[in-house]
Design brief:
Elements: E1 4-8, H1 16-24, H2 27-32, E2 34-39, H3 41-51, E3 56-60, E4 72-77, H4 93-111, E5 117-120, H5 125-130, H6 138-145, E6 152-157, E7 160-164, H7 171-176, H8 180-196, E8 203-207, H9 222-236, E9 240-245, H10 250-255, E10 261-264, H11 267-278, E11 279-282, E12 287-291, E13 294-298, E14 304-307, H12 324-342
Parallel strand pairs: 1-2, 1-5, 2-4, 3-4, 5-14, 7-10, 8-9, 8-10
Antiparallel strand pairs: 6-7, 6-13, 11-12, 13-14
Helix pairs in contact: 1-3, 4-6, 8-9
Length: about 350
């Protein structure tokens, strides 16, 4: 059977509803999975009308009542938004709370085995916190409600797949978090993820922290004391790893297919190269034409894949947002769910 995916609607005031509608307007989406949106049916109907599609929104209170038919968007209707006060493109506490409730419900469904994986549309961190939900973002919400202690963020676009030793911490602290044990941990996670994507023999590149990977100690000590020992232990355990690879060349090599996955030492080291490749800015229109990258949380007991872009309040409600990243997220989640079912 095709896997069932719960797709969270994201912040209702952002582009989440319209990129979901665009993705579910492709018949091939229903050929690979059975999608159900956790959100507000009324907002989804607005998005369908905005885009002018001939799609029916089917509001349900149970996954069992979903139709999973092309032409119908099944919505697990949580009714969180008051339409009389709702506005596109605005930071609103009710929308932050709504986004949180959509995520929480998707996690509950996945933990209960009612869905095979989850895909998340973007939320707004300011709105989330104004609503009283004090999390840095999706990853921390998922870790909390799945009781997961060891997890990591992986970004992907075409040949570039990158996992991070640390993410949302000050850069000064990120250097202190470059530790052998954590490097080994995240390398194991991205190796396992590559297997789930259908890559039989993953080759992993591990970045250095310092310029030129410290040039034999000239520019830092982290490579000698933490990264090289991690690489040596991983090799001894049978992993196909290379490193420490100079940070200014590892992603160029990955883009050309040398590595199936990369280990970045901190947030921006991994995010910047991926977004340079995945995001396309149209100079003539002054707008982002497409943003294809996806964000996958590894180490969870359930599958979570997300678009790697924000709520784009500046274009929300205008019907011009691209569904590229949502389509790619659904594809990754489907592949991971099928692998999980077969193992």
């Amino acid at each position: 059977m095709k896997p069932i995916l719960a797709i969270t609607m994201g912040d209702p005031a952002g582009i989440g509803p319209e990129i979901i509608v665009r993705a579910l307007n492709h018949c091939e989406t229903y050929e690979q999975c059975r999608p159900i949106v956790t959100g507000d049916a009324a907002i989804m109907r607005q998005a369908v009308q905005l885009l002018g599609y001939n799609l029916h929104v089917n509001a349900v209170n149970n996954v069992a009542d979903a139709r999973f038919q092309y032409g119908t968007i099944d919505v697990y209707d949580l009714q969180c938004v008051d339409l009389s006060t709702f506005e596109f493109g605005k930071v609103q506490p009710q929308c932050g709370n709504a986004a949180f409730q959509y995520i929480k419900k998707a996690i509950e469904l996945a933990m209960a085995g009612e869905v095979d994986g989850t895909v998340t549309a973007p939320l707004n961190k300011e709105a989330l916190n104004l609503a009283g939900h004090h999390y840095d973002g999706h990853t921390e919400i998922y870790a909390t409600f799945t009781h997961t202690k060891k997890y990591a963020m992986m970004l992907a676009d075409e040949n570039i797949r990158v996992i991070h030793v640390s993410t949302h911490v000050p850069l000064r602290k990120a250097c202190d978090l470059v530790k052998k044990e954590r490097i080994i941990e995240v390398t194991e996670l991205i190796h396992d993820a590559c297997l789930q994507f259908g890559i039989e023999h993953p080759r992993i590149g591990i970045a250095g922290l310092n310029p030129h990977s410290s040039e034999n100690g000239m520019f830092g000590w982290e490579e000698a004391q933490e990264i090289i020992p991690a690489v040596e232990e991983l090799k001894a355990r049978g992993f196909d790893v290379d490193g420490p690879v100079p940070p200014d060349s590892i992603f160029a090599k990955a883009k050309c297919g040398k590595y199936d996955g990369c280990v970045a030492m901190y947030h921006d080291q991994g995010h910047i190269p991926l977004k340079v490749c995945a995001f396309n800015w149209n100079k003539e229109t002054g707008k982002m034409e497409s943003a294809k990258g996806v964000n996958i949380t590894l180490g969870l007991p359930i599958i979570r894949v997300s678009v790697d872009h924000g709520t784009a309040f500046d274009v929300a409600g205008k019907g011009i947002a691209s569904e590229d990243a949502m389509m790619l997220s659904i594809d990754y989640a489907t592949r991971m769910a099928k692998y999980k079912k077969s193992n």
